[in-house]
Amino acid sequence: LPGDLPHRVFAKGKEIPGLAMSRSIGDLAGHKAGIIHQPGIEWLDFQKDDLLLCCSDGVWEFLSNVEALNIVSQVGKKNAADGVQKLSAESRRLWLAEADDCCDDITVIAVWLS
Q1: What is the pLDDT of residues 4-15, one digit of tens each?
Q2: Angle, nearest 10°, between helix axes 80-98 and 65-73?
Q3: Which positions ≥6 away from 72 have C-beta within 8 Å?
Q4: pTM, whole model, 2 decimals?
């Protein structure tokens, strides 16, 4: 699409599905255009009290990993719900500051490991 920043996958000669990702579960139109459903897997070593954030791309558009972790970890383990809300609100604020009436999906899951 003209002016669209992320690279997208389209069916040849069409403006669908227009996905800005290389993997998608259940998107048969995307599968025909080269989108795969197999996830990329990486093994990580976590420590006790590490914070794992699982967020949609609406969070990562304007925030780095470190910024997102700082927002959630500032409120502490016992207030994880507040941290998730704070990160969601900051993501939305940044979206609206950039694109007045446009905001991508924002999903945040915070898991404090023990």
Answers
A1: 556 777 778 887
A2: 140
A3: 51, 53, 80, 83, 84, 86, 87, 108, 110
A4: 0.71
